[in-house]
Structure prediction request, 620 residues.
Amino acid sequence: MAETMTASPTAIRSSARSHDNTLLSVIFLIALWLSLALAITFLMTLIVTTAIDGAGRFDGALFTEYSSQLSPETTGLRAALLGTIWLMVTTALLAIPIGIAAAIYLEEFADNRRWYNRLVELNLQNLAAVPSVIYGMLAVAIFALVGVDRTGIVLVGAVALGLLILPVIIITTRESLRAVPREIRDGSLALGATPLQTTWRQVLPSAVPGIATGTIIALSRAIGEAAPLLIIGVAVTVRFDPDGIMSSFTAMPLQVFNWTSESRDEFKIAAAAGIIVLLGMVLALNGLAIYIRNKFQRRW
Amino acid sequence: MTTTAPPAVLTTSTGAMPPGDSGALRRRSRPGEQIVMFLLRLAAFLSVAITVGIVIALLRPALDFFREVSLTGFLFGTTWRPSFNPVEYGVLPLVAGTMMTTLVGMLVAVPFGLGAAMYLSEYANPRVRKLLKPVLELLAGVPSVVYGFFAIQFITPTVLRGWLGVDVGFTNALSAGLVLGVMIIPTVASLSEDAMSAVPQSLRQGSFAMGANRMQTTLRVVFPAAISGIAAAIVLGISRAAGETMVVALAAGSQPNLSVDVREGMQTMTGYIANTAGGENIVGSVSYNTLFAVGLLLFIITLVINIISIALVRRIREAY
Prediction:
């Protein structure tokens, strides 16, 4: 969009609005509206019907009780909530430093005329679109190689999810680094800072809001991922609090999946309530990301 | 302000120095920095190691699998019965399941995704766009297990059986595909919108100057100009739909079914992986190896689709 233009795009389009007078063009516009309306209606319906389904179970037991086969009416998310917290913290600790380091190298130091750097680039684009189940299988295989055969533990889950969101973190971090103007780097280098000092003291701090936004959105994707956890063989019923990265666990999306697969109605209701809690978490993370973007992001 | 730049560095900073070129600085030994640089490079190349790891991880058990089952029997066999005697490992029913759910999904995602993209790129003013884009992002952010729940709790009983009167089973490819389609709308919409927004304004101005209205400009000028980006968006959508697991595991069923009737339940490749992996599979057992053989096939299929998508995106970058 490096086009030199005298009028803003919208102004040009609105000047053409007077031409939208044929029946066909009005029908076309209505069809476009309907496309968006469908997406919004679908989302609304999903939230409202699920909230109604789960309305009976927004009680204390939902949060304080363990999942139970014997008393489905008081089955709860306790282990899943704690498991998700353990899982997400571990995932973040694994993926964020590596992702940011990789992005810094690729954006600030890599010479992209070299074939191996271009390979990394191409590889990242593909990795971002590899199905999430595959990452679960990768994590199982990695730990089988090391000799750990009990794979339904926090660490294995975190490795699977960490690998899954790594490409996303790298791609969004690179975009934020790219948005930092050249002049800041030039100024720092001219004052005698080494390239690494420039990156660490000037470029990185300027890019922090963008990196934070991208990372939080990546984590909000990871929090809802059930498929890789299913592959690593997370326990169906966990009736204890996970207490470390080597602990067996279950997580929110998987608890919802297990309850959905149950035939008894009490579990469907509990699943709906669990979904609302899970959606609340995803929304909170997305909201935080949008807040950071609007409040701290600098435009040059 | 005090200038503290050591003269040694001043001599090096002549002209615009690319960040990668620190040749002169490296002469002054900075072991700490070299270690950091090494770590940064290591992190970057880890992503390649991940791909290699995926290939090895999938290939080793898959090779064990193909020692017992012939490759042609696997790829072209029409019966998938891995857990009952006599066992048969013809993967076509699973591939067909994936294709049918993906097809239904794309029939939803392509028209509605493109419609949304055209509206956002060509019609919406910036204020409306600012309001609508987060809604699409939210649609993309809903966990897939939630979509799966919605498919079996609402789409199948209320929409398909109730409103539309379609005679469908409890699990069926139609409901899974429809939900999959809505799930893919944001992917198709946001990438297509990027492609259409990148079309130079002068093309639109020329079209309007010739007296074309917005529909004609959108369909005959902007759409053809952005076609490779839009194609890339659709191809990426196909890859997402084929690799999606939880929706099909819940809503498409667990019955391998070589049929084109989407009202029936069908097991997809990802559905098989999810249903089988839920149990205990001892490393090295036949069921474990089978799982990885299907995983490898899925990885290869999505890899091919992704490469097509990446190649298409490269083309639009060259165009403008």
